[in-house]
Specification:
By secondary structure, the chain is α/β, with parallel strands linked by helices. It folds into two domains: about 90 residues, Molybdenum Cofactor Biosythetic Enzyme, Chain A (3-Layer(aba) Sandwich), CATH 3.40.980; about 45 residues. About 55% of the residues lie in helices and about 15% in strands. A three-stranded parallel sheet has the order 2-1-3, sandwiched between helices. The protein starts with a strand and ends with a helix. About 25% of the residues are buried.
Amino acid sequence: MLAEVIAIGDELTSGQRLDTNSQWLSRELGLLGIPTGYHTTVCDTLEAGVEAFTAAARRTQVVLATGGLGPTADDLTRDVLAAVAGVDPSEGARILEQAGDLKTALVMTKRAVSVETARRLLSDHDGNVRRAIQA
């Protein structure tokens, strides 16, 4: 299993702030036995975020993000993740509410299946979400 940490923010890409979160997250992942293969720092644009998360999802099994979730207009992480998943941003809350948990919601979104089918896929694969959501 390999992880990637994505740090989001214009303040990071401009050099205005130092990204210490990625360092800390990588150390903590290491303590869990999960090596970090990539650190990506991305600016606050939808296009850059989609590109970063798409690449990370292709090359690693664990993607952690830091930054980009504040209350300001340039915090687009929710929109980025919706675009990568191919769903309307407003659909995320509805899907999660319907599913009841994040793993089931991820399977429902990736495989375009019902709650029942998503739960069966998860149980059939002993909870291995990665295998269950592969297209």
